[in-house]
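Colleagues,

Please find the record for the three-part complex below.
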Amino acid sequence: MAGAAPTPSPEAGGSDATYARLRRPLLAPTWTVIGVFLLLPVLLMVVYSFLTKEFRGGVEWDFTLAAYDQFFVTRGLFGDEPAQIEWTYITIFWRSIWQAGLATFLCLLIGFPTAWFIATRPEASRPIWLFLITIPYWVNLLIRTVSLRFILRDQGPMNDALIGLGVISQPLEILNTNLAVQLGLFYSYLPFMVLPIYAAVERYNFALSEAAADLGANRWRALFEVVLPVVRPGIVAGCILVFVPALGAFLAPDLLGGAKTFMIGSLIDEQFRGSQGNWPFGAAVSVILMTLVLIVLMIQARAAARAGQ
Amino acid sequence: MKRLLALTTLLATPAFAEGELKVYHWFEYIPQELVDKFTAETGITVTIDTYDSNEAMLASLKAGKLGQYDVAVPGDYMVEIMRGEGILGEYAPEEMPNFANIEPQWLDVPFDPGRKHSIPYQWGSTAFSVNRDVYQGDINSLGIIFNPPEELKGKINVLDSQGEVLALGSLYLGIPQCTTDREQLKALNDMLLAAKENWASFGSDIAKDVLVSGDAAAGMIYNGFSAKARAEGANVEYAFPKEGYVLWMDNMVLLKDAPNRDNAIKFMNFLLDPQNAAAVTNYAAYSPGVKGATEFLDAAIKDSPENNPPADQKGEFIIACDAETQALYDAIWTNLKK
Amino acid sequence: MKGVRHYPGFLAVTLLCLLVLYLPLTVVAAYSFNGSTSITTWGGFSLRWYADVFTGPEATRFGQAAWNSLTIAIIASTVSTVIATAAALAMIRSGRFRGKTASYALINLPLLVPEIVIAVATLIFFTTIGLTTGYLTILIAHITFCIPFAYLPIAARLSGIEGHYEQAARDLYASPWQAFRLILLPLLGPGILSGFLLAFIISLDDFIITNFVKGAGMETLPTAIFGSVKQGIKPNIMAISTMMLGVSVLFVSLSYLINRKGRPAR
């Protein structure tokens, strides 16, 4: 991969004395806002995950590992069988990770060419294209998802059109399947892939591609070996912005997939806003989820830093 | 311009206001005209905040919003839960002249015996509806949902709500709610897992729309939603199954630490006036729990088949179980959706 | 030049992408003109739901909700974009430093925490410190969770800009502020615009967190829309959504006109 072209490091500019001096004031707003209004509350939630559940929501201040025990260990429906590994929640996690991963891949597959196309338009029209991508998101997610549901129906406009055109003879049964969930997640998060990639590609120096072409690489090889490494920060940013929210999403999976199975998002939601009202368990599931994602993010950040050296 | 004018009046009101009232309510569940009428009669400014589920309301009250609102509108089982949590205020019947208007059958309810914290707001039932174009057979049994005939398999939507699904499932099997009997709970668990194979989807918000659009040929549904589906042209029939159905009632409760308790009592009293209760019903299309309200109801609502269960078939309120028993039901639900 | 920029099929993918994005909106727009109360069966063309939005019983509340949503989204996305830009400068431009990893984790924290947890935790926190829920608490919460959405595109852009442009400017006696404003900021433009737009749509769409940290009488469009499911979604919601689309198109057209009057090229 490396070596086909001079690769500007992800930390191009590296250390700039001016910004190094201003580091504290520049980071202060972030630390203050997120530190006070999110980190403190979240730390409280981490504490909650180790407390005793109060029936119907709330906590009692008695330390216990019951929430984590519920996640990892099962003793049967009545709690009197020998302890075994509880696969229920691990399965839910695995399913959600798989769905979110697929959705991220789908967004990347469609989002990258779109971002590239926009970035190669005349400069004056680029913001218009960006707006075109974001305008649909002025309509609430619930309404968008309900409308998508309407389109995908067995007797819906999409099937009518496909049958009318003679593409298919029987209506496609998409609703309440994983495919519908994928489409829903894709539809929910597409701009979060397109915009960061656009921001990176717009900066791309096309002379690099020309150099690659001069050296005999065809355009696809140039794309994979020259372009992708350079615009990597944008792709990584897009993937994070799609994957992480998709992991906790429940509106698209529920409305389009038929809600026959829990996703992480709906499982946690059920503990706080649903009838199970088990705050410590909801907090524990969140802590496990946050830890997993944080580990992935840290590995990615390390890799990016190493690639930059 | 008209809106601007309305806004100015709204802002100007406190000048002659008798104080204010903070209502925690569902969105679009009380006609604005009625609120305006209350303000005109009493001079009390009403501020409404909204929630989208009983549990969300409870969670936000427990997370710190208690003390900000005077009244809320929880469902039956939630009244009992809130009572158990000690977050309801108490009133004496003498404080409300219209207290006597409460229909006798709704006076001594299991979730608030003798009505010390709440008044009836609207009531209805939860059962299921069937698209009569798809299935013409007998729909007098919950078996339509839990052990469906061939025509309906894979075309059923059930409510995405633990309470209703487990309660209707228990009714179907003829076992009591909040049972701790192992065999009965196992039977419920197994029956639901088998039934799920025949279900297309879980969805509450879409319960009406899937019937209207034809995505589902049968669906667990609230009676008012089914009436709306019928009004929108779907050939659906709402069933009152022989095993029983779920009865629900939304109630206005006085909250603990209500900042404007006196005004809250006035508002509750106002809603027990037959004409006002009927105004809510004409808007929400369920049933009032107030004597004499019937004569003010629109005929379409009064006579709708969904609002008039046959006399010989009984509904049951969902019971709020104790913590230990509830944990078993939670496990069954999680198991169903894992 | 044209050759290396053009990839066969990318135009087709872009059009497909736009088609997928806009197809459901045609349903929304169509059913806002539905004569019946259904969002699934057609009852003839009618403007009754538009009339309902402006003169119906809920008109004031819908109006207020739309106004709150828009102002909160604009303020929250602007503030969070500024905060995120500053953070990106420190993170990308100031080399290695102690606490860099921690800062990175902190910036992304709003992404990592499930929404409902943010909602409950924040509400508990606000009540603990004695902050009454209302417009301000919604605003604070929105600014907080918008930061990573603004940060990531800006940081991605910034890592692609070499430091020597500013260095050259400073060598020519530009102050650091001038170097930033005249050199770096324009180069950063597309990243900032992307970040701002993402923060904006995230704020505009938020339901779960807003639902918890809003106070009595405070409604935003999402809370109004989610709340109305008690009665089933009616075409009046479709009418409001269509009008929101109209407003956004108006914004875009205006910015296009302003843009055309501005500088033609870099």
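The radius of gyration of chain A is 24 Å.

Comments are welcome before we finalize the supplementary table.
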